[in-house]
Structure prediction request, 318 residues.
Amino acid sequence: MRYRRLGRTDLQVSELGMGGLFVGSGGLESGVELIGRAVELGIDFFDTAPSYRLGAEQPASQEILGRALKGVRKRCYIATKVGPSPIHERPRYDRDGIMEQVERSLKQLGRDTIDILHIHDPDRYGDPDAPGSYHAVLGRGMALETLEELKRQGVIGAIGLASLWLDYQAHCVASGRIDVVLTFNRYGLVWRDALFQLFPFCRRHDVGVVQGTPFHQGVLAVPHPEWVTAPPEWMTPEEHDRYRKLLEIQSDSGLPLPELALRFLLSQPAIGAVIQGAANVEQLEENCRYAARGPLPEEAQSRIEALGILHEDPRRYI
Prediction:
């Protein structure tokens, strides 16, 4: 496992992190085993959220992480979130709501501190009357002001922003008050608009970049050759053309499609860590093998980059 500096946090984290959404899919003991194996493989960066629970009968992701990492001697870093939470009917970004969420998260994680606390989806849920409003983050008594207070107190180590809209992230990063951003779907084999809408702002302010959903929420997990002639309804003509060309590159390279996707992300120096969401040990070990192989072969890398930057308004996913 290789390690990278996560922006101005100066944390040296595993370049392949572990997402917490699916760790409870097999139950508590299976999730604990999965996290334990991740640590054995060199992963020391884990991403979770209060809302990460696959069903009422499944254990919460934070509880699994807390159980799995208890007593582990290796230094492991945890990023969790505030905003959407099971203890509130609607996402809360005000001081009182955040303090309640942080108290619950610390208890579930079994920790006194949180390494990175992300403001979660404020661009989509921060203001129900005006989606995309910056008040949830930048308003007086709201998220950023509250997280700065928690950082001064030593309760959290770094302030993060986990959201979808790149223009929203860029504006918040430009404030100089964000340490880490978690972005998803906006950089990879299909879309790459983060390359010019977000990464330059992060470089300017030395903000760490965490890349989620390396397989575009399952789109790149398994090849679908049938989509070449019969694309799904959600796929735009531009996405269909990109997907068709990617399958050609994948076939010529001889690499599995998810390996192509993961190694392409890891070749981007702006990214500090890629969060993969393995649901079982087999998927985890496979992803680690892909990452260990390093950069893509030059021909495959060049052909992917030659496809150009595909960008689109992500608001259609809301």
User: Anything to note?
Assistant: The domain at 3-317 is CATH 3.20.20.100 (TIM Barrel). The longest strand covers residues 114-120.
